[in-house]
Amino acid sequence: MSPLRDLALRVSTAATPHIPIPVRRAMAGRQVIIDGNILDPSTQLLLRGLELMGEADMTRGEDVAENRAGIRKQSALLQFSTPVGQVRNFSIPGPAGPIPVRHYRPVVENTGAVLVFFHGGGWVIGDLDTHDQAVRQTCRDAGVSVLSVDYRLAPEHKAPAGAEDCLAAYLWAVEHAGELGATPDRVAVGGDSAGGNLAAVVSQQARDTGAQLPLLQFLIYPAVDFTVRRPSRDLFAEGFFLTKAAMDMFEGHYLDGSEVDKADPRVSPILADNLAGLPPALITTAGFDPLRDEGNEYAEKLRAAGVPVDLRVKGPLIHGFYNMARLGGAPSAAVNELTSALRAHLSR
Questions:
Q1: Residue 218: what are its φ and ψ, rounded to 5°?
Q2: pLDDT value, residue 7
Q3: Long-range contacts (CB closer than 8 Å, 24 or more residues apart) made by 302-307
Q4: Domain ranges of the chain
Q5: Active-site residue 332, yes or no?
Q6: CA dist., res. 249 & res. 124, Å (int)
Q7: Mean pLDDT across the chain, nearest whole number?
Q8: Which tens digits make up the pLDDT trace of 266-281?
Q9: How far is 194 from 122, CA to CA, in rounded Å?
Q10: CA distance linking residue 252 with residue 163, whole number of Å
């Protein structure tokens, strides 16, 4: 993106929450209705601006370095000042060396819990900084300490390297809960997209190994199945930020040459033989998200196995909305609802 185009996109994104909703709707263009859902006008306006600037998709091509730089630029557009009590960067021991983490403490602690958070980005892109804004808002508004984990990424580290790091980070947090402002039985896991996948995997592995179960699994539009192409994958394959091309690229980098089968629960947690005995789940899905159907189905399967599930379906929104609170309107309201729900679940 040229500096001029970059500036124009930054200015338009910053202005969006100050534009009256009817004006946003008019600026966004023709109303988009798919599968009974009406696309949120703030989100549609963002997508239109990104398209005009040539930045409409989550990724472009196969170049990993370019895609990582691109997601950092896109996330920077949606950053805004969110003060928390304290932020500390350090490393913890991992199965293949130190794992960088970032610990956020809220100004007011409301839950006595810590959330171990795994960022999204298809197991390939994303880092502590791309999700700094979302984590800060979660920390502040839910009143919970958050340990954000910079797990190993593909293609440099194939599956299940990322999941191994995330499990190690969760177990470290349980062991060191006091340092994080919690007790060992009040450590939750969560993440968005690929991070939601990793949180689900960690929850299953904690159960299967007899470790302390997470207090909660907070799954934000999680990817949970590499084996089945559900209808939402085709309905929203293009034009809604997360595209089929991006998902195919992520899958190739994460799984090809990994010696982990697509049906392995370490990458497709919905296919675990037994879902009983897992932690309660707070799950959200988005109406215009290719991952919508598998997230909803995972919620249903967990419920059928006797796991308490709080499913929040955000029909007007797209994949990535948890990082889009700066837009105001529906994305901001959805994030506020979810952080409030998280606070309530962690306060029990």
A1: -105, 100
A2: 56
A3: 302/275, 302/278, 304/275, 305/274, 305/275, 305/276, 305/278, 306/276, 307/275, 307/276, 307/277, 307/278, 307/279, 307/280, 307/281
A4: 76-346
A5: no
A6: 9
A7: 93
A8: 999 999 999 999 999 9
A9: 5
A10: 17
In the set 103, 253, 319, 345, the catalytic residue is: 319
Q: How far is CA 323 from CA 119, 130, 134, 246, 326, in A?
A: 11, 9, 5, 18, 8
For 206-255, how does the pLDDT look when each residue is reduced to its tens digit (9 = 90+)? 999 999 999 999 999 999 999 999 999 999 999 999 999 999 999 999 99
Q: Is 193 a catalytic residue?
A: yes
Question: Catalytic site residue 289?
Answer: yes
Name the residue among 169, 124, 135 with its Cα closest to residue 149: 169
Burial 207-227 (b: 16+ CB within 10 A, else e): beeeebbbbbbbbbbbbbbbe
Cα(344)–Cα(348) distance, rounded to whole angstroms?
Answer: 7
Q: What pLDDT shows up at residue 46?
A: 86
For the stretch 27-69, pLDDT in tens is: 878 999 999 999 999 999 888 877 877 766 778 777 899 999 9
Catalytic residue among 193, 203, 232, 268: 193
Residues forming a β-bridge with 238: none
Annotated active-site residue in 127, 150, 165, 289:
289
Q: Domain 76-346 maps to which CATH number in 3.40.50.970, 3.40.50.1820, 2.40.50.140, 3.40.50.2000?
A: 3.40.50.1820
